[in-house]
Amino acid sequence: MATPVPPPGPPRPNNPPPNPNYNPNNPQSLSDNMQNLNLNRPPPPSMPTNSPRPSTTPFPASFSRPGPPPPPGAAPVRPGGPPPPSFPPGRPSGPPFSQSQPSPPLGYRPPPNFPPNRQMSPPPPPPGARPGGMAPPPGAVMNNGPPKFAPQGGPRFPPPAGIASQQLPPPPVGAPTAMGVSRVPPQPQTMHALLGSSPRSPSPAVQQQRSPFAGAAQPPPVSPYGSQPWSMQPNQVPPPPPISQSQQAPGTYGMPPPMPNQSMTAISHTVGQTGAPVAGPSKIDPNQIPRPAPDSSVLLHETRQRNQANPPPPATSDYIVRDTGNCSPRNMRCTINQIPCTADLLTTSGMQLALLVQPLGLPHPSEEPIQVVDLAETGPLRCSRCKGYINPFMKFIDQGSQFICNLCGFTDETPRDYHCNLGPDGRRRDADDRPELCRGMVEFVAPKEYMVRDPMLAMYFFLIDVSMNAIQTGATAAACSAISQVISDLPEGPRTKVGIATFDCTIHFYNLKRALQQPLMLIVPDIQDVYTPLETDVIVQLSECRQHLELLLDSIPSMFQDNKTADSAFGAAVKAAFLAMKSNGGKLLVFQSVLPSVGAGALSAREAEGRTNTSVGEKEAHKLLQPADKALESMAMELAEYQVCVDIFITTQTYMDIASISVIPRITGGQIYYYYPFSAVTDNAKIYNDLRWNITRPLGFEAVMRVRCSQGLQVNEYRGNFCKRIPTDVDLPGIDSDKTIMVTIKHDDKLQDGSECVFQCALLYTTVYGQRRIRVLTLALPCTSMLNNLFRTADLDTQFACILKQAASEIPSSSLLQVRERLTDRCISILCSYRKFCATVTSSGQLILPETLKLLPLYILALTKSTGLRTSGKIDERSYWINYVSSVSTALAIALVYPRMLAIHNLNCKDDASLCPPAIPLSSEHISDEGIYLLENGEDCLIYVGNSVDSDILNKLFGVPSIDEIPTQFVLQQLDNPLSKRLNDLINEIRRQRCSYLRLKLCKKGEPSGMLFFSYIVEDKSLNGLSYVEFLIHIHRQIQMKIPKSKAKMAVAGGESEVSEKEMTPWEQHSAVISIPRFDYNAASSLLHHSHSGFRITCPISL
Q1: Which are the contacts of 636, defined by CB distance < 8 A and separation ≥ 6?
Q2: Which of 1091, 1068, 1028, 1081 is nearest to 289 (CA)?
Q3: How far, in Å, CA of 351 to CA of 619, rounded?
Q4: Residue 88 to residue 488: CA distance in whole angstroms
Q5: What is the DSSP letter of 382?
């Protein structure tokens, strides 16, 4: 960041100076911004053309999640106070809520897996926050389909009723959760040799233990931080009481006695003398193997306590961050929260050291706003050697006249106007008054030296496919309707410009100047050597062309309704739009329906070849996931150079070669939206909501990002959607709140044990209102030379998200089988390292899982069965999955591979106030033919209807008495009964949590849709891989083969492992000890049907 990368292009006219007192995240603005989170509706037929607009500010005064717009003539609600710099506007709207249901607080944004109706006490209101409420109109009707509605303004969420606050001490010795397994003689085997069936129902003794997913009394959840060293939350129930030896089941064959200070819950099983199972049902309780545990508490997370880093809560939990020196984990997380001192120690652990950075990630509405620091023309204080920014960990010496950089160790002189004396504790006396000296995330107003030209204008250009296929399927009409309705959500003022063009085998620009009586079409027939009309004719200020633009959007579908041109000049159209935007840059939003077939960047159909190669065995199929040629990649590099960010909305029913097309949004910092198979009946609402969220979410233009590390570490690689022209920086023509960038770290020297290393991310960007800002994120973590500390502070969610992103990047260059094997080997390597060096359990026949990584095998198994890695599937679907994963956030990465499944046939039978029912394990044992189930992964929402569902339930939910009468193109309506209303409210809540208008798909047993649903039931054995229990057995077997026999014998004899017990007591070491009874690994599959005969769970105790 020392030298900003100058974007080419002539300097632009001077713009009015920004407000120097601008606050980026005014709490009230954030609250009002979040009013539009009701995503359960289609767009209305019309939108107001004029409405009051905020004064010029860096970012719009408010922003909206995907959701319906306000009705015609509705007056927009505007927040008070200074407008935030990073959060664009949205219109307060949304369907009315039931009077029996409390409204969420203004700005409330639940996390991805947040149970919605928690009892929380309200936190202290941030400065500037205002109370508010909204009463639903009588007789209001809500639906998920095309009918009109009357959206209401005002707050949409109830005030929190209670927040579990806690002070987290440094990691003490804690009690683990463990599971027991019996010894297995080491024998060579492969993963594909393991055959068997899903576990059967547990014995009556086992059934006394409630499933963690049961609706009533639930077993104690694991600590929300995933590791035993940190205390449990006040709202959590204590661990179960220990079971005495007299209560223990007598048949725990081959299991060691309980460890000191541990209780044990044993599940009985029967095994013959030879190790073969005795005839009878399997005794495995699938609810006792590690699964994600629901957590209903809201955590208050202080990023540092007692001058030490506080490990963050799981990314999928609900937490409120208090910035006490480190940045929020929503914006930057590390895979390990104690940094290994050497590269050898990291290699031994098998884990990866990496950061996941989401610079503009949304804060929780109850958090304090991001502080803006304006140091006038001097700009932020920086190290003169490494150019690191001032942060709470820089040390001032010599009465404040000098400071030592915590990144490179260089000593600099303190500028005269920044000098302050030191207090008795060695800190500056004004440290608590300056955000940059006490907070891990701040935003600086960039002085002129950070600009090579005037901040760019907010320019939006819409490019619409009007070929025959797009017209006939309704894709063109859907795009025009969505654009017409979101125009009013664009930032107002003279800095906002828009343009529009259509294309088939030629390109059609439109002159939108106010002086004309109607828009004028300008045709560009040459698609080989593309040119563009004058920029001043085709891109004009929004305030001057609003009426012409709305008239044009209404007319385009009818203008081309008789179009017989089937070809698409996609590449040439993008090139022409780029030429019109070249002098400024901005966002280019493309709606594409058919494979580009003519002009620059034309592609040929590779679908048939892809099907052949996929079915034959994937020998060459991965090559179809690579771009067909370099033409579009070269075009994307040129777009990025001139700060043009491209988003592509693919509305198709055929093959599109997404592998080639996706190069453009990936390099320019954009995004692919994929609607396949497109349906004008069901997808119009989703296109509108996706487009609205795209332009109203927090957004930055012409950004440059760099991550710096302390001495001894360096950045190895960046992964994500960006352009990289120099090794140290990434260029982002566009960056938004949903984009995450992975940064891998490597050692270049040894770190000092007990010291702290620092990671700092700096993002220089332009707001939509033309203010240049520098957002600085700082994270300081301790260094350790002990391997057990790495496992104790590992961040499962971040580790897995990095594994997911790396696997996705390998798919285009490797066969799927190789990628799956590498994933399994990586999981085995990590767990083997823990078993070999950190666990002192005496039996070698135990699979021992660290508390923090106990779900890693489940997530790895789910990943190997995911859309991107399963053998079956379309090439385009896999290409889209790869592109989506490249920038997905940490929380959504988990949901993508291990979706959430809920039973919805008995929603009205629940007596509690929770909107979301308990999650169900992804196993067919939990799916009944008499039930209806909802499964969501952050992208799609599948509703599975069993064949024997009661006709009364079908009538209440879908308005039909038989499953056969439900239409194929399914649109969920809200009917006049409690069950239907509950289902609509539930889907609304899920869409809010995911910040996405999830597509609803109806799935029926025996149909392709039913097969799609069961492809997400990842715990079952299928053509895509082993069952969860079989996968654990395979992991255990491979670990046994890796551990030397001499070490195993020593362990059985009671010897010590490489980590002495003085350093690590047994109950501190691991969470799960899974005992697997003996059986013949080489037996035929029919003999293994009942071979999993028992589990033993060793539960944690309170110390």
Answers
A1: 646, 663, 664, 666, 667, 668, 723
A2: 1028
A3: 30
A4: 12
A5: B
3-class SS shares of the chain: helix, strand, coil, % to 5: 25, 15, 55
How distant, in Å, are the alpha carbons of 381, 450, 643, 932 from that of 4? Answer: 16, 6, 14, 56
The answer to whether residues 665 and 696 touch, using CB atoms and an 8 Å cutoff, is no
Residues of the chain with pLDDT under 70: 1-287, 296, 607-621, 840-844, 908-914, 1045-1103
Integer Rg of the chain from CA:
29
Distance CA 481, CA 689 (A): 11
Task: Kindly report the number of other CB atoms within 10 A of residue 786's CB atom.
Answer: 17
* Residues forming a β-bridge with 703: 732
Provide DSSP, 802-845.
HHHHHHHHHGGGS-HHHHHHHHHHHHHHHHHHHHHHT---S-TT
Q: pLDDT tens for residues 166-196?
A: 333 444 333 333 344 333 344 444 444 333 3
CB 531 within 8 A of CB 493: no
Contact yes or no for 710/619 (Cβ under 8 A): no
Q: Rounded CA gap, 783 and 789, in Å?
A: 10
Q: At what angle do helices 856-864 and 816-837 cross, to 10 degrees?
A: 170
Dig out the tokens for 747 from the structure: 């050692």
pLDDT, tens digit, 9 for 90 and up, residues 16-48:
444 433 344 443 443 343 333 333 344 444 433
What value, to the nearest 5°, has the Cα angle with vertex 566 and ends 565 and 571? 100
Q: In this structure, are strands 354-357 and 395-397 parallel, antiparallel, or unpaired?
A: unpaired
What does the DSSP assignment read for 958-983?
Answer: HS-SSGGGS-SS------SSHHHHHH
Classify burial at 564, counting beta carbons within 10 Å of its beta carbon; exposed 0-12, middle 13-18, buried 19 or more.
exposed
Q: Packing angle between helix 951-958 and helix 978-994, nearest 10 degrees?
A: 60
Please give the model's pTM, rounded to 2 decimal places.
Answer: 0.75
Burial class (CB in 10 A: 0-12, 13-18, 19+), 193: middle
Q: Which two tokens stand for residue 857?
A: 């095998």
What amino acid is encoded at 306 in this protein? R
**DSSP per-residue codes, 915-928:** SSPPPB-SSGGG--
Identity (one letter) of the amino acid at 754?
Answer: G
CB 781 within 8 A of CB 334: yes
Token pair recorded at residue 739: 């984009």
Partners of 544 in beta bridges: none
Euclidean distance between CA atoms 167 and 73, whole angstroms: 50
- Provide φ and ψ at 798, rounded to 5°: -70, -40
From CA 638, how far away is CA 636, in angstroms rounded? 5
Structure-token match 């088939």, residue found: 504
Sign of the torsion formed by the C-alpha atoms of 113, 117, 120 and 121 = positive
**What tens digit of pLDDT does each residue of 814-825 get?**
999 999 999 999
The residues that bridge with 718 in the sheet, in sequence order, are 743
Chain Cα centroid distance, residue 24 = 23
Residues 6+ apart with CB under 8 A from 524: 506, 507, 508, 509, 530, 531, 532, 533, 576
CA distance linking residue 902 with residue 900, whole number of Å: 7
Q: What is the dihedral of CA 99, 104, 106, 109, to 10 degrees?
A: -150
Cα(823)–Cα(814) distance, integer angstroms: 13
Question: Coil, strand or helix: which one is 106?
Answer: coil
Reduce the DSSP state of residue 702 to 3 states and report it: strand
Distance CA 1021, CA 1089 (A): 12
First to last CA, the chain: 49
Residue 1006 backbone class (left: φ over 0; alpha: ψ -120 to 50; beta: rest): left
| Three-state SS at 215 | coil
**How many Å apart are CA 192 and CA 190, to the nearest integer?**
5
Residue 592's closest CA among 469, 708, 492? Answer: 469
Longest dimension (CA), the chain: 94
Q: How many CB atoms lie within 10 A of CB 258?
A: 19
